Amino acid sequence: MDRYNLNSNHHQSVMFDEAIESLAIKNNGIYIDATFGRGGHAQGILDKLGADGKLIAFDQDKSAIDYAEQNFKDTRLQLIHSPFANMLNLLSEQKLVGKIDGILMDLGVSSPQLDNPERGFSFNANGPLDMRMNQNSGISVAKWLTDANEEQIANVIYEFGEERKSRHIASAIKKFQAKEPLQTTLQLANIVSSIVKIKNKHPATRTFAALRIFINQELEQLAKTLEQTLDILADKGRLSVISFHSLEDRMVKKFIQKHSKQRQLPKGLPIKNNETEKMHLKDLGKSFASAAEIDNSRRSRSAILRISERIC
Ligand SMILES: C[S@@+](CC[C@H](N)C(=O)[O-])C[C@H]1O[C@@H](n2cnc3c(N)ncnc32)[C@H](O)[C@@H]1O
After folding, report:
1. Is the model's pLDDT at 5 over the cut of 50?
2. For the whole model, what pTM was predicted?
3. Which domains does the chain have, with CATH numbers?
4. Rounded to the nearest whole angstrom, what is the distance from the C-alpha of residue 128 to the centroid of ligand 1?
5. How far is the CA of 50 from the centre of ligand 1 (A)?
6. CA–CA dist 210, 180 (Å, integer)
């Protein structure tokens, strides 16, 4: 089959067994899949839920929601086309704040997004340089690279891609644009490849990841949503996050650490029975994909699953 088949809808869920187990699914619980994708994890959750259980699934990509509507006929599943950072607002409309038994976040992009050249995520196939997960909002990478100056471009590639050649790349982008518009994925991949020389990886890997993270505001979305989970989760509700990028994982790790450590409060505060600040989360640790899964899926190599539990 053509790897770039536009109709390809397959996404192999990463750390499937570990993620489903981490949620400790209760028969009649209410769960959230913040990143539906092609619904592999969602199906795993539905399979464990009883008749009165409920799964609320978010995806900001309309094609994921369209796929779900066509392929998931399950009355226990509610689909929401929205960035997951709207979770608290949308759940409060349904009076479900504080009642959620588990939230799964499987971050980043899905294979159908990556493999469809029209979406502009891939440095291997030519297509418009878009990279928006939600094509109904925001601007494409091509438009941003046209509007931004050299320093802004360099900063984004350095900050979100940890790419040491960011300044050279930004300068080459502006030189290219002085001659012709930069509009396609392969134009950008070729510019980066003329500067970055690395083995075992496409030279444009870090630059594409940086621009994708920036244009989709992935770190802001994650930071906002993590904070919201403290209100959203019920007592003993689980938060399971699979991340693929060191910046995301660091954010999840710090969030869990911050809310799972008992800190001594400064002296003089009017607390009677309790000398320490209350913890909000219990850290249940992290895990990685098995060697067998890594053999089968390159993407799982960088996956880290962090699990925590709400303590009310
Ligand atoms: C790695 S895939 C999830 C795959 C899914 N777990 C499965 O088993 O098929 C990530 C999905 O999350 C969506 N996504 C990423 N960031 C999002 C956000 N901030 N809000 C809503 N959806 C998001 C993407 O559009 C993509 O469909």
Report:
1. no
2. 0.93
3. 16-112+220-310 (3.40.50.150), 135-215 (1.10.150.170)
4. 21
5. 25
6. 23
